[in-house]
Amino acid sequence: MLTVIEVKGAQPRAKDYKLADSGGLYLFITTKGHRSWRLKYRFGGKEHRMLLGPYPSVGLAEARQKRDEFKAALKNGRDPKLEQERVKSAAAAAATHTFEKVARDWFAVQSTGWRAVHASDVLTSLERDLFPGLGAVPIGDIDERMLLTALRAVEKRGAVETARRLRQRADAIFRYARSEGIPNGNPAAVVDQALAPLPPKKRWPAIVVIEDLRTLIRDVDGAGASPVTRLASRFLALTAQRPGMVRGSAWTEFEGIDWNDATRPEGEASWRVPAARMKLEFNLAENDTYDHPVPLSRQAVDVLRAVRLLTGRGSLAFCSSRDVHVPMSENSIGYLYHRCGYKGRHVPHGWRSSFSTIMNGLNERMLPGSDRSAVDRHVIDLMLAHTPSGISASELRYNRAAFMPRRREIAELWADLLMQGIGPAAQLMSGRRRGVGA
């Protein structure tokens, strides 16, 4: 066996020669003094030789380690030379498979089944928050500290929930890389506990006294604002749905309304909100089973008939003043409430709390402790598109449209309570108008 001194002292001779170590390993020295480690072995009944690396870049100990690794492959019936090519290929692939390249490949595969809005959100978050620091790094070289540094920079700007979503997306990217044969340690799988906890859910300012809500409606009705904005506010109050769902509502989503005959009874009028606009887990959003049916009271239909005179030629009920195919600004109703003196007291999203608090309170007063009371709590949650406690995802799938007769009764009761002493929607058609929208 060779010693380190013998290896260092090997000098060129008149002819190329070799110094044997053991197990087929030897140092090859050329007439020009170039030294390299080589391995001689037999595979498939034939003698083979392979290069392990130049000396002194590869020292004696490392050369012996490589010899032992390739000998182990030989014992398992694998050609060491092919094993060496595999290792080289994997190293070259790892160098070219940067985090950004793999992430974009993952995005190209996954986004084919996503809605455009969600796809844009995912790609934008990666480009803004992860690619600047990690994009050029081979994915196999990224460790927990590197990923945490990127995620904590997001947390520092107050976007704690975004940081957690980015960790989930990074985890999916690392898993995708592994499935494609690109080795990595997937640091995203273990950094979850190092991230900041999610802050408590925000409580939206909301008025929960019915008389005060009527005053709010009257104040909005009399405000100097676009009729579309005021009608959108009334429709939001009557349906208690999410403001974004109201702003994006398309005329095609409304069912059971005869637009040509206002005298015809509308006992089955409803608004079917597509799953894509529901606040559901994204992997459920493509399933139309999760469309959200909203029974419409006669007062809600009254609002739609009024606003249709203004925006009916477009695709959206509550559109922008500049484009009938673009939703009104998400701030329009909120700014209107501010101008009416309700800043900090009530926001557009607050109507959901108002409806839940008042109707559940009414329910308890009318049916204290009864089975019907428990059912109505469940129904009110369904009307708000919440998942009632104690109900599984599979049950929710089949109960999304359940209890519709009772849901319609509660919608009518809420509308009657809320609109007591308040005039029809047609009275909002007068006043300052800016085009067709808000």
Topology:
Layout: H1 4-9, E1 17-20, E2 25-29, E3 35-43, E4 46-55, H2 60-75, H3 80-96, H4 99-110, H5 116-129, H6 131-134, H7 144-156, H8 160-179, H9 210-221, H10 227-239, H11 243-247, E5 254-255, E6 270-273, E7 292-295, H12 298-311, H13 332-339, H14 350-366, H15 371-383, H16 393-399, H17 404-418
Descriptive notes:
This protein is α+β, with helices and mostly antiparallel strands and 438 residues long. It has 3 domains: 4-92, Double Stranded RNA Binding Domain (2-Layer Sandwich); 99-194, Tyrosine recombinase, N-terminal domain (DNA polymerase, domain 1, Orthogonal Bundle); 210-429, Orthogonal Bundle (hpI Integrase, Chain A), CATH 1.10.443.10. Helix content is 47%, strand content 9%. The protein contains 17 helices and 7 strands. The protein has helices at 4-9, 60-75, 80-96, 99-110, 116-129, 131-134, 144-156, 160-179, 210-221, 227-239, 243-247, 298-311, 332-339, 350-366, 371-383, 393-399, 404-418; strands spanning 17-20, 25-29, 35-43, 46-55, 254-255, 270-273, 292-295. Strands 1-2-3-4 form a 4-stranded antiparallel β-sheet. It has a 3-stranded antiparallel β-sheet with strand order 5-6-7. A hairpin with a 2-residue loop joins strand 3 and strand 4. Helix 7 runs antiparallel to helix 8 (160-179). The longest helix is centred in the middle third of the chain and has 20 residues, at 160-179. The radius of gyration is 34 Å and the shape is rod-shaped. 31% of the residues are buried. The model is unreliable at 280-289 and 431-438 (pLDDT under 50).
